Each structure stands twice: as C-alpha cells, then as structure tokens.
Amino acid sequence: MARLISCTIAILVTCAACAETPAAKAPGGAGAANSNMPKVSAASSASAPMGISDAPSGGQGSSRPKLNAQAAQQYMAGMQAFQAGTLDVAEGLFEKATEADSKAYQAYYSLGVVRERKGNSAGALSAYAKAIAIVPDYEPAIVAYGVLTAVDGNADEAEQYLNGRLAKMDKSAAVTTAMAEVKSLRGESGAAQKLAQEALKINPDYRPAMIVLARDHYRNRRLDLALYALQGILEGYGPENPPRDKSNPEALLLRALIHKERNERAAAMDDFRRALELRPDLVEARVHLAGYLLESGNAVEAAPQLEWALRFDRDNILARLNLGDAYRLLGKTSEAKQQLEWVAAKDPKLPQVQYSLGLLYLFSDSIPGVSPKDAAGKAIASFEEYKRLKPRSTAGQSDDSDELITAAKSKKAVIESQEEEAATAKAQANAPKPAEKPATAGDSKGTGADGGPSETKPTGTPNGGQQ
C-alpha cells in the first residue's frame, strides 16, 4: 500500500525591513470512528519540514536590499494571509510585493513557498531562483530550491545544484544540511549523517542539522537513536547540556511520529498539539492529531483540524479521506460524499476510500440524489471493491467487510420486500371492483314470511280452468 505523505519543505521568514529572525508561526515549506476501519499511513519518511532562519548560517552574509515601504506592506499582509491559511490571497499579495519592489528577494522566496504548497513546483522553483538572483547567498531559497528538486524526483540535479553552491559557500551550514537531507532522501544514510555533522562543525548550534540527523535515523528505523538526538534538542542531557531548542516544532513533530509508531498515544497527541501551537501550518501534525480524535469518535474536534490542514495542503489525500469520515459522523452526508469521491478520483486504487464510501452509503439516513435501495447497492459495491483492492490480511488485523456486505444485502432485501408489499397493496387498492348483476323480471321472486323466497303458484290450470 502506498504511503501517503504530508510534507513541507520551506518556511517563510519575516521581511528584512521588519526583522531578521524567523517567524515562529510562519509557514514552512487515517483514523476513523469505526475501530475496524483500515488506516492509511502518513509517515514522513520521504520528506519533512525544514525550518530555517533568515540569518546566514555560517556567519556574515552579503549585503541585502531593504524592501521599500509599499512592498513591505504587501509582504506583511501576505504573511498574515498565509498564517490564516488563505494561500490564494497570500500568493497575490506576495506577487504585488515583487511588483512594488523588483529587489524584494524575500517576497520572491515566500511566493515560492506558497506555490510549493499549492502543488506548483515549476512556479515555486522559478520564484526561488529569482530570490537567489537578487541575493546569491540567500540560504532559505537555495535550500528550498535544492530540496524541492530532489523531492520532485531529480536527486542528481539537486546534488549538482547544491554542490555548485557549496563550492562558493563552503562555510554554509544551511546548504550543507540541505545536501545531507538530499542524501537521506536517496537512502544514503552514512553520507547524510556525515554531512549533517559537518554542518554542525560549521555552526555547532545549527538546529536544522540536528533535525536532519534525527530524521535520517527515523527514516532508517533507528528509533532509539532518533529519540536520543531529539532529546538533545528538546530536553537536553542534564544541567551541563541544556536543551538546544525545547520549542522546536519540527523536533516535536518528529518525536510525535515516533511516539505514534510505538503506540504511545498520549505522548504523541501532546507533541502534535505543541508543534501546532508553534507552527499552525504543519499539515502532518494536524492530520495525525485528527486521526487520533476520529479513533475516539470525536469528529467534532477532528473536522476543524482537517479543514485547517487542507488550507495549507488542499491535495492532501489522507486529510480529505479522514474529513469525509468526520463529516459522515457529523451527519453532513453531502460534504462527506464530496470529499470521499474526490479521493476516489485522485487515487482509484486506494482501498480505504472504498471502505469509507461503503460506510457512508450503508449507515447514512439519507443521501441527496440517492434512493435508499440504491444506497444499499452502492454500499455493497464499495465494500466488494475494497476487498478486491486491499492487501492480504495479516495476523492481528481485523476485517469486518464481509459482515458489512451482509448487512448491506440484508438492508437492500428489506427495502425490496417493503417495495413489493407497497406495490401489491397499491395494485389491490387501484383494482376495479366487480360490477353488480342487474335484476330482471324473470328473476323476481316473492319473500316468505320467514324472509326467504316464496314460490308463486299459478292461478289457473293448463287449460285455463279454475281448480
């Protein structure tokens, strides 16, 4: 089964005209109520957030132009729009900032982040390249360009690009860390660990390099080593080694994923919530947190989490799948059907969406445009398609699809029986009643004293005489 991934590559930074520190809440680049519902993984093994400061990571950088007043105003409005999850508005505002100031390198970078979130890789790379053309050593854009190139499947091109930058910026902890991330994405763990350590030699306090070390351990299933690395960031190793960054959202997200994998529900939920307080745009944290809420039947809280996730990643399959289930539990059948049909169209081979559609058709009181009998038929078809698509069952995994098919067939049979009874009753009610036979003179008879018929005797004899 394909792993569904919610990822962020770059993080927006505050404009140079206002500050030179990273914005803590700036954007960075399956559960179900039914306990037998199959789950879809959203692990971050392929890519993950890379929070990065606007300040040079290896010391003093080149001079950077200041935004003019009009561009700064548009830029800050764009930041606010992003934090509200209105990406289309943010994109338009960042574009206006670049129009107001052709040297607005941070606006170009932020424009790239928004386009990347919207799935426009070509547009994102173009915007990053424009930021780099203005400030050749602008690390956030260089890192975003290199990692996005690798995530898009062009790892060789990404390495060539980053190596070219390192030839001119050999003291850049950020670019060295980006190369480590690309190596990790390629499965070259040894090289990734070595490069991340080199970044820490350049800047011993460089947190993104620490995160890459931990994430590479996580990708390669070295969970204890990943937790040890995260401990240094979030908790420290005692009074002489205090935490480097106890409020690092990327570290909290990664630790939450490890807790989740180890079935440590309470710890995972706590870290997901803390990460979101610091970075509301962390889609993966919202999706996993919502999955936990759905598993406990709390669709009321799960739905807003998933709606917010889709603001920052509108094509996130797992978010839409779970939102469909949340809407079903809330009785919002039309909305549930819309989300689940979107998933089915996006990934026709995903068995979980067929299961969810089956639940929707089977248990909803009514679905607009679908009769009860048709709904039962669609439930049967969805569950049977789920059985066809699902991987082979493994030990310990329950599957109630056969019972659900039986329930759907029984429901359909009851509806058909009721329809037949109704049709019979209607036919009998509308059938013409038999007409009464009209009376004739030859049929008339008298009535006896007892109320029965009396015979009429002839008054004369055959010859007409009197008796």
Can you tell me about this structure?
A hairpin with a 5-residue loop joins strand 1 and strand 2. The protein has 467 residues and is mainly alpha-helical. The N and C termini lie far apart (112 Å). Helix 8 (189-202) runs antiparallel to helix 9 (207-219). The protein has helices spanning 69-83, 87-100, 105-117, 121-134, 139-151, 155-168, 173-185, 189-202, 207-219, 223-234, 249-261, 265-278, 283-295, 299-312, 317-329, 333-346, 351-363, 372-389, 401-430; strands at residues 446-447, 453-454. Residues 1-10, 14-48 and 451-467 have low confidence and may be disordered. Strands 1-2 form a two-stranded antiparallel sheet. It contains 19 helices and two strands. It has a domain at 336-391 and 401-419.
Biggest sheet strand line-up: 1-2
Radius of gyration: 36 Å
Please give the number of β-strands. Answer: 2
Task: Give the overall shape.
Answer: elongated
Helix content: 55-70%
Can you write the helix and strand succession as a string? HHHHHHHHHHHHHHHHHHHEE
Q: Determine the N-to-C terminus distance.
A: 112 Å
Oligomer: single chain
Summed over residues and divided by their number, the pLDDT gives a mean of 85
The low-confidence parts are: 1-10, 14-48, 451-467
Tell me the fraction of residues in β-strands, as a range: under 5%
Structural class label: mainly alpha
Instruction: List the total number of helices.
Output: 19
Report the biggest beta sheet as strand number plus sense, adding barrel if it closes.
Answer: 2 strands, antiparallel
